[in-house]
Amino acid sequence: DNTWREISPRAGLRFNFIKQLSAFVSYSHGFRASILDDLIRTGWMWVGPKYANPELKPETMENFEAGFDIFPAKNLKIALSAYCMLGNDFLYYVATSDSIFGRPIYRRENVTSVEIKGFEAEATYTLTKNILFSGSYTFSDSKIVGFTERPDLENKSLKYVPAHNASFSAFWQNKIINVSGRAMYKSAQFADDENNITLDSYLTIDLMLSKKINENLSLSLDIQDIMDNQQMEV
Question: What is the DSSP letter of 52?
Fold first, then answer.
């Protein structure tokens, strides 16, 4: 029987230096209580078998971000930002020493402190009013800084968090049929707490065809991963 209350403020400033350049800074305080399932139910989750942990505390997160938008040319926009998130009592599935059917049994724990930092870059270019290109890249460094109950996991990377994400998209609108495509890349990511198991990096290419029939009807065909690659994903 628990009740948690928290004030989660958020503040930001944007500076418009000139028409072609603006910058921003922001801060927010995050708060998240555990879901009821992790508090009371032993069973199966997306990670596999897991124990309940009725002693879980809420996590808090301090978020800092800064960046700028620049328009170096008439049809080109570039956005850059850097972020840092400092988490306390971070809610995280940790493998126990028990197993079932050869799979470890997990338990949601409060990691004492984590640090998630990185930067994002995005560019959009309008070649014509009917042709648009966009690309983005994200770098993320997510680590366990302190873990009182499991010091062996300190300085380990959080699992299922790729360090590099990149994508490129193109859109062509025409009288016959609209065509858009996207290529997305994810770098390798760890699949266990000790960072001994790695999921391979992968590249996918998606294609979408669409046609507006009239004001009330549009048709579209979305083909995901046209190269038909098989990869592990969470």
Answer: -
The Cβ of residue 27 has, within 10 Å, a number of other Cβ atoms equal to 14
**pLDDT tens sequence across 50-100:** 999 999 999 999 999 999 999 998 899 999 999 999 999 999 999 999 999
Distances (CA, A) of 221 to 19, 179, 227, 229: 39, 10, 16, 19
Q: Which element (helix H / strand E) includes 219?
A: strand 217-223
- pTM value is 0.86
**CA dist., res. 181 & res. 136, Å (int):** 14
CB atoms closer than 10 angstroms to residue 164: 15
CA distance 200 to 191: 10
Neighbouring-strand partners of residue 35: none
Contact 82, 121 (CB under 8 A): no
Examine the pLDDT at 212 and tell me if it is beyond 90: no
Nearest to 6 by CA among 68, 54, 62, 82: 62
